[in-house]
Each structure stands twice: as C-alpha cells, then as structure tokens.
C-alpha cells in the first residue's frame, strides 16, 4: 500500500503542486481537493490507513503509509491522511456509536466530507490553548438538546467542513459533540493568513451562539471530553511527524539534486564541505526522526496511551525537521527561498508544525514535570 501511495503521489499529485486553484491564503480549494480525491479513489489509495472493514492499520503500518503520502504537501489532502481529518477519524473510530459512525465518520472516511476539531479558544478570551483545562466554552442541557456558547480560534479546516467535533465544558466536566456543518449558530469571525498553506479551510476564529445539539450527538459520555482528547492526542501528534518526515525527505531529494547539478568554484556544490556536510547532517537527522517515529508507534501498538512518548517524539522530530528544512533552503540559496520548488513551502509548514499539537516548550515542560515526579518518588 505504501508503494502504491508513493507512486500515486509522485506521478499524479506532485504535478498538481503548481495548480492555481488556491484560496485567499494559498491552500488548495475544495474543487482541487475533490479532484485529487477522485483520482486517489480511482488509484485505490484513498484513506489508505483504514481498511475496508473500518479497522485501522497499526501505528507502525500507518507510519509507513503516511510518510509516503507526505512526499508532497498535497499528498495527505489527496489521500485523505491529512490533519485534522486523520485524527478525527481515529477518535470517532474508537469512541463513536455505530449510528454516529454511519452519520459522521463514514463521509469523512470516504473522502466526501472534511471535518474540524473545535477545541482551541482565543488567547484574548482567556480560553484553552496548549492548556485544555482552561476551556471556557460552555454546554448545558436544555430539554432534549445541549446548548453550547463560546468562542474558538485556529480551527483548522473549518471553512468548507461538513463535520464538526465541538469541545465544551459542562457541570459534569468536558464534553464532545458531533455537529453538522455549516450551522448558523457558528459564526466565522475571521480566517487569518498563516505561515502554512497546505490545509484547506484555513484556521478560523469562531463564535458559537446558542448552538443547539441533540442529545444523541453527544460523543461518548458527558464529562469524559478530556479522556477522549487523550485518545486522539498521541496518534495525532505522531501522524504529524509521519507526514512532515515525508515532506522533508522530498526537500532533501530536491536539495541534493540541486547540489549535485549546480557548479560553483570549479566543482559541484555537494563537493564543497560547507554544502555536502549540511546534506549529510540532514541524512542523519532524517534517519533519527524515522527511528523515533517507529519507536513511538511501537509503544502505541502495545496498547499504551503513549502521551510521554508522543511528546518526546513530537519535540525531537519537529525540531530535527526544522533543521533539515532550513539546511535545504540554505543549500539551494536564492532558489531555496523562491517558489521554484516546494522546499520553501516545506520550510514554512515545518515552522508551524513546531507549534501545532503543542509547542515544543509545552512538551518539554510536561516532560520536566514528569522527571520531577520520578525524582520525588525515588528520593522519597
């Protein structure tokens, strides 16, 4: 399957990287997404990480497939392995009832609908960001419905999405709800231009005003929202690492090709140690990232929640890939900062990846707290 995904991305998707169908901030339009997914469906590589019977590949198997889909920034969108849909499908596959799966999961799995995960809230509102416990959006039961009020920010893929997972706080604790989109009770306040341009639908700021959700659209049980978020969190962090490793492998290919062809001072660039060593360092860090992903995937496949391991992997891989992308730009000089290749886009996307699904510093802080607890137990 991974070989088929790679062949599809290289033959069909990469030529579409220059397709002009882009929205106001450079992301592929829904028209382009639909066309790419139709082609992926024909090639038998749509949603390749989920089997026909609805079961998921193991995390180690998923890694092999998602890395290949990431060889183009458009690859995950085309193959339906992109965020937030991939993480949302994982969550619904593990928590949703059969009825909710049929109504909300299946259209996303078939690539017919996009989804959005509504958790993050505006900083100026004092809401949840990297600290979900700050969740301020509220939900209260009223008759046969839940009524939700609040604000959300940086909601990836919201514009054009048909399925929403909304997180809100009730007296029982955090809750998650499935909603049909668009809904007139959810108003887009703005969609900022951001450094990344690979995800359709942007990163919207939203106002939720008396959003009524039928009781049977509560995901799982009331008060277990944070528990369900943890189910989604570790695999979603790891999937980001997989996809962007694929992108950096491609950037390395392009930079190496450039350095082998470009002549300077009487010989190819790669023969100059200043350039050749950068590509060698990239080769080493790409292999380390791959090994880290495989290690974390193995932990998750053993049935562990893997929050610590996924934090470590997210930090190590995102920081390593940032260095890889930066070196690729540097090797290619002026060409590297132009849109002549996808290298400059990969650099921008990886910079955002260091923030998404938890900034590096938050993960390090969490790991340091765990180290302190371990020390306290040992010292005690």
Automatic annotation (TrEMBL):
> Pfam families, from UniProt?
Acyl-CoA_dh_1, Acyl-CoA_dh_M
Q: Which UniProt keywords apply?
A: FAD, Flavoprotein, Oxidoreductase
Any one GO MF annotation of this record: oxidoreductase activity
Cofactors required: FAD
Q: Does the keyword Oxidoreductase apply?
A: yes
The Acyl-CoA oxidase/dehydrogenase middle domain is annotated at 116-194
Instruction: Report the EC number(s), separated by commas if there are several.
Output: 1.-.-.-
Q: What are the TM regions of this chain, as residue ranges? A: none
Q: What class of enzyme is it?
A: oxidoreductase
Residue span, Acyl-CoA dehydrogenase/oxidase C-terminal domain = 223-371
Q: Which family does it belong to?
A: Belongs to the acyl-CoA dehydrogenase family.
What is this protein identified as? Acyl-CoA dehydrogenase family protein
Organism expressing this protein natively: Novosphingobium bradum
Organism taxonomic ancestry:
Bacteria, Pseudomonadati, Pseudomonadota, Alphaproteobacteria, Sphingomonadales
């Amino acid at each position: 399957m991974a070989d088929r995904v790679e062949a599809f991305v290289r033959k069909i998707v990469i030529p579409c990287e220059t397709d002009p169908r882009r929205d106001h901030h450079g992301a592929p339009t829904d028209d382009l997404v639909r066309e790419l997914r139709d082609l992926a469906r024909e090639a038998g590589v749509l949603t390749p990480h989920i089997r026909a019977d609805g079961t998921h590949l193991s995390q180690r198997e998923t890694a092999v497939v998602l890395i290949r889909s990431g060889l183009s920034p458009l690859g995950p969108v085309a193959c339906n392995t992109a965020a937030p849909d991939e993480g949302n499908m994982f969550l619904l596959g593990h928590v949703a009832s059969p009825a909710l799966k049929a109504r909300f999961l299946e259209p996303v799995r078939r690539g017919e609908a996009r989804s959005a995960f509504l958790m993050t809230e505006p900083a100026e509102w004092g809401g949840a960001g990297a600290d979900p416990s700050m969740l301020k959006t509220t939900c209260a039961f009223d008759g046969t419905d839940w009524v939700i009020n609040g604000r959300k920010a940086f909601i990836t893929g919201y514009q054009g999405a048909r399925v929403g997972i909304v997180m809100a706080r009730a007296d029982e604790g955090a809750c998650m709800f499935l909603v049909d989109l668009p809904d007139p009770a959810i108003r887009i306040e703005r969609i900022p231009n951001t450094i990344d341009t690979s995800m359709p639908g942007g990163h919207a700021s939203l106002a939720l005003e008396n959003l009524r959700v039928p009781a049977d659209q509560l995901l799982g049980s009331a008060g277990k929202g944070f528990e369900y978020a943890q189910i989604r969190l570790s695999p979603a962090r790891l999937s980001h690492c997989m996809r962007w490793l694929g992108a950096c492998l491609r950037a390395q290919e392009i930079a190496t090709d450039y350095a082998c062809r470009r002549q300077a001072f009487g010989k190819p660039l790669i023969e100059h140690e200043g350039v050749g060593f950068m590509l060698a360092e990239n080769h080493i860090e790409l292999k380390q990232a791959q090994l880290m992903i495989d290690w974390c995937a193995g932990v998750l496949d053993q049935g562990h929640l893997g929050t610590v391991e996924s934090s470590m992997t997210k930090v190590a891989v995102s920081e390593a890939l940032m260095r890889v992308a930066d070196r690729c730009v540097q090797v290619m000089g002026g060409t590297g900062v132009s849109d002549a290749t996808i290298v400059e886009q990969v650099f921008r996307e990886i910079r955002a990846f260091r923030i998404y699904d938890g900034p590096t510093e938050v993960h390090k802080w969490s790991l340091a707290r765990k180290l302190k607890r371990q020390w306290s137990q040992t010292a005690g």
